[in-house]
Sequence to fold (730 residues):
Amino acid sequence: MTDAVASNKDGAATKVATSRDFAAAFKDAAISAGIALLLSVPLLSYKTVQKVVGLSLEDRWPLALGAVGIVFVGRLALNLFWWNRPQRVASATPEALKRATSYLTGVGKWLGVGLVVFAIIFPFLPFADRRMLDLAILVLTYVMLGWGLNIVVGLAGLLDLGYVAFYAVGAYSFALLATNLELGFWISLPLAGLLAAFWGLILGFPVLRLRGDYLAIVTLAFGEIIRIVLLNWYSFTNGPDGISGIPKPTLFGLEFKRSGDNTFADFFGLEYSTLHRFIYLYFIILILALITNYVTIRLRRLPIGRAWEALREDEIACRSLGINITNTKLTAFAMGAMFGGFAGSFFATRQGFISPESFTFLESAIILAIVVLGGMGSQVGVAIAAVVLIGGGELFFREFDQYRMLIFGLAMVMIMVWRPRGLIATRTPSIVLKERRAITGNLVAEGHG
Amino acid sequence: MSMAEPSPILRVDHLTMRFGGLVAINDLSFAAKVGDITALIGPNGAGKTTVFNCFTGFYKPTEGMITLAHDNGHTFLLERLDDYHISSQARVARTFQNIRLFSGMTALENLLVAQHGPLMRSSSYTIGGIFGLSSYVTAENAAIDFASYWLEKVGLIDRADDAAGDLPYGAQRRLEIARAMCTRPVLLCLDEPAAGLNPRESQELNQLLLNIRDEEGLSILLIEHDMGVVMGISDHIVVLDYGEKIADGNPEEVRNDPNVIAAYLGVEEEQVDDVEKEIAS
Fold:
């Protein structure tokens, strides 16, 4: 009963509001049309044309009036339908909001599963030729790097501009171990990861007291130091000549070669194809990336992961709750560096050749851009951002040639304007008592180092 | 034969804190008894929060000694401990004047972060946890139960899965107290817990603090400007002005102390009587 009365009242109110709105809209449109008329009379209505005897004027009234008409109708339509449309904020009841967020988390979950399934069947799809596989391997390398850096930047809130240093340490450790000591891929890989983690700790110590911009500057310098040492320590790293002849990975001792004692194609009785090696590399990086993802998701639900996020939210409160800030920061740096090191090892074995040129500041910037655009702390967001930035960049912007970086920058600016907290801005709680609700990004701190 | 005085839980001896030439705390000595609510009051800038920061390790005092005694006879010299050891070993918990919750994390997560130390040990420093050992699962469930107990107690159990930053102001204050309690402290230091609360909320806060003292058997140290809270629940009040102690006693004594009245009204001690007459007339 009361509801009906209320809705009646509402109906009446809206009707009154519409007629008043219409009058106002009409008035506004008329004023705009008047301005358009004032402008179009001198600008559009006459045109000078050259005749046999000097210049003469030709009138173009239809054009001028047409412009006025377009302004009037357009302004009226904007007033009535666009600016006047019901405000979303006002209509968003808590219920609707809750539904929307749970819908979003649902989408995020299924999107993640869908992406993984697609990634697994990708090499067997018809369009997966050598170029596409190569690109997919590159994208997955960046996905892995993004996920690794996400631990440091997204979870612990420590702004690291020198992440490429760990990528370089991983790649060089792998290359030197594999070429000098002739250790195989599967032994060199974890060793390279551990060495990178060790360098993560070394970087961690001096920057423990630094926050925000200062931290960013020191990490930036660290990245450059590593690159310059690699460039100048000729006797050890071969300097700018780089290291070549890095062995390819083998599958339980089977090599991916055309001929030899123990080739993959022979063993399985397949016809030799260069694609086999690429598919194998693809699966190695896919598995490495999924391990990174799995470990990160696990860590987030453990006390150490919660301490990282708490550190990002409020360092002083952490100290008052008995959390050892030093250890927490160092583990974040070490974990992030370790995954960077794994990715670096993979890069070395895929390329077969590495030189300091591959580890410039631009790499750090791109990895950081992937994390920030994806939404700090969001695993799915980082993966999508890597696919869009790296894959999209290679597939669609190749032909723009030297304008590629320009378009890349423009795209980043636009994403940041539209989605300032990244593609996926919500945070999923690490633990739930009754009901899982996503947390809007504007409550989540970005961290101050 | 008279009963021996219960030994104080916290003893402050000749505490002095200088920032360059500024003397924020000057030769402060007092003791807080076990199971008491001790209030630290004083006009703005009297150095109350500085005292708290010295207790909780955020500042290293220039001079003096802060001794904390546990039931079992263990004593800790707080001025020598690192800030996180003060919470994890000496078991002193604190809240902040301007709320410092982890606003992007849920209420439940906030309380689990507070149980970081025990959870870290039970996850064998992450290594056991990553493989999902059952001992860690049990420990985590116990931690959730303990957190639920405190959420229940501060009336926030229904909002356990909401972001802490989404809660209303009064609820955030209570959540911060619950978070401090989740570190299982022996001494709880509250820095202006009633600031910004309406009269009903500060009544509820009084009840909560009395409940913590009586049921949990905790000693509480309190900085507060709200005299309703201070006089209503304190067992013992210490008054600071310009970093020095000007009065020390039970609420009745402090209320009538001419030094205190002078400090709060901003006049010399001799003029207090005149001013009071003026106000009364």
Remarks:
- The mean pLDDT of chain B is 84.
- Chain B touches chain A through 45 residues (CB under 8 Å).
- The radius of gyration of chain B is 20 Å.
- The beta strands of chain B are 8-19, 22-33, 37-41, 63-69, 75-77, 92-94, 187-191, 219-223, 236-241, 244-249.
